[in-house]
Amino acid sequence: MWHGHFTGNLSVLNNTSSAVDFIMDGGADMSGSFTQQGGGLYIQGHPVVHAVSSEAVAAALRKQGDNSVLTRPVSFTQKDWESRTFSIGQLKLKEASFSLSRNATLTGDIDADNATMVLEVTRCIWI
Description:
Elements: E1 6-8, E2 12-15, E3 21-24, E4 28-37, E5 40-43, E6 46-47, H1 55-63, E7 81-82, E8 84-94, E9 97-101, E10 104-113, E11 116-121
Parallel strand pairs: 1-4, 2-4, 3-5, 4-8, 5-9, 8-10, 9-11
Antiparallel strand pairs: 6-7
InterPro entries: Autotransporter_pectin_lyase_C (IPR012332), PIC_HAP1_IgA0_b-sol2 (IPR057393)
GO molecular function: hydrolase activity
EC number: 3.4.21.-
């Protein structure tokens, strides 16, 4: 999983086997190309990271009726996500699968060669 941000005039090649997925949730503002050859590419937003307490503290507060204390910074069920923008000069997909998931926007040209694309995926997310 790549939490970083690709920026500038660069080109990225991710050449992998069909069993490997690459997940980006940081963002991109690049004028070059991003090539995914094989495997899966997922572009998504990122869940908001929350402050946490220990399980002992959370359990003590739950006994007093306070269920607001979290023990994990992110979860699959949380409703608050940060949106991410991916501006890529050219997205090249070769024998790969691509999914544009929740809270992500993609701009740029797409060149798909023997590839599958699913846009606006909400059920397949990574944290």
